[in-house]
Each structure stands twice: as C-alpha cells, then as structure tokens.
Amino acid sequence: MKAVREHLPRIAVGELLELPDLARALLFAAREALPRAAGPKEIEKALKEIGGPREDLLTQAELFARRGLLDKERVAQIRAGSGKYDMARDGMELAALFTQHAGALKGLHPFTREEIENLRRTSEWLLENLTPAGARVEVKKKDKSAAEDTRDRLWTLLLRRHPALRKVGYYFHGDDFESVTPRLLSRAASAQAVEEALEEEPEAIADDATGEGEGEGEAP
User: Fold this and answer.
1) Reduced to 3 states, what is the DSSP secondary structure of residue 136?
2) pTM for the model
3) Start-to-end Cα distance in the chain
4) How many CB atoms lie within 10 A of CB 103?
5) Domain residues of the chain, as ranges?
6) Which three-class secondary structure string do you get for 145-202?
7) pLDDT tens digits, 131-164
C-alpha cells in the first residue's frame, strides 16, 4: 500500500481499501434481495385468514343485492367458481365492492374498514403467489425493497471505485494486470485477492515511472 501512495498519489487509497468490505456487503444484500416464492404453509395460513371474512362479506353482499343495494350480476359472479385462486380473487372483489359503495352501505353492515382492508391486502398477496391452478409463483414486487436499494447502492460504489483499482493493477503489473484486477463480473475474485493486489509492490520501477504513474492514477 505504501508503494501505491508513493507512485499514485492521486488514487484514493482509502476508498480502494474499502472494496473488500463493499464486495462482501454486496453479496449479502444481493442474497437478501432475491425474490422468494411463498411456501405452502404461508399460503394455507393466508387462505384460512380470508376464508371466514370472504364468506361473511359475500353473504352480506348477496343480501344487499336482493335488496337492490348492490348489483346482482356482479355479486353472483363473485359467488361463482371455486378453488384457492378464485377465493383470493373473491376477497379482492368484495373489498373493492364494499369500498366502492361505502357511502350507500354505511351503517348497514357490521364490517369495519380495517377488516375490509385486511381482506384486500391478504387476498392481493395470495393472487401474487398463486396461479389459477393453485401453484406457487415467484413473488412480484411493485416497489424496490430496502435490500434491493442497498444492493444497488453498493453496486454503484463498486462500479465507481473499481476502475481506480485496475489502474493500480496496470501501473504495477502492466499487461498482466487482468489476472490481478479482473473486470467486475468476469470471475469471482475474492476479497483476499483484492487485498493482496493492493499490498503487492513492483519488483522494479523505472526512474521515470513516477511521472507516468501520476497520469495513470487520475481518479475517474
């Protein structure tokens, strides 16, 4: 590292020393950001959560339809069908129906806004994790998660700092620098390899190398 500071004074050595830790943090964040398919137990638990509310709201909706307060055809379509996916879709439809007609139905049923919102939220989760046949699918995320945001920020830092590391490798190793400081994603270079590359000193440096090194070492 002493040699890097001496011959490449414009390189931000402190930032390069952080690269191994950044790489380790990126690997962890990338694993955390991987989409995860819901397990059978999670799906069954969610189905049990919406089962009672779905039936209660549907029974109430049918009563309202007979009284002319809700559209009979729409309520009948919700009642039709069977299966896990259809149950989840019913939950979404019922939540939307009661929310849409909240003003007209106010005070006419015992369901709270929170109960209806819970039904909507759990039913939506099920629709994201079920196919019409009931099979599991990969969870679809609408917004970037905290892990994804961290992963992207760490990757950006590596992209900005890695070129400087390659300049150090080229200065000390010439055409062999690719074996010491490979391109990102070209191979799984370990954090130890990065640290060793930073610590290596050249066997010999030409008398005029310092002048050349300053040009090579300009921060990107």
Assistant:
1) strand
2) 0.48
3) 19
4) 6
5) 2-33+145-216, 40-129
6) CHHHHHHHHHHHHHHHHHHHHHHHHHHHHHHHHHHHCCCCCCCCCCHHHHHHHHHCCC
7) 665 444 444 555 667 878 888 888 888 788 878 8
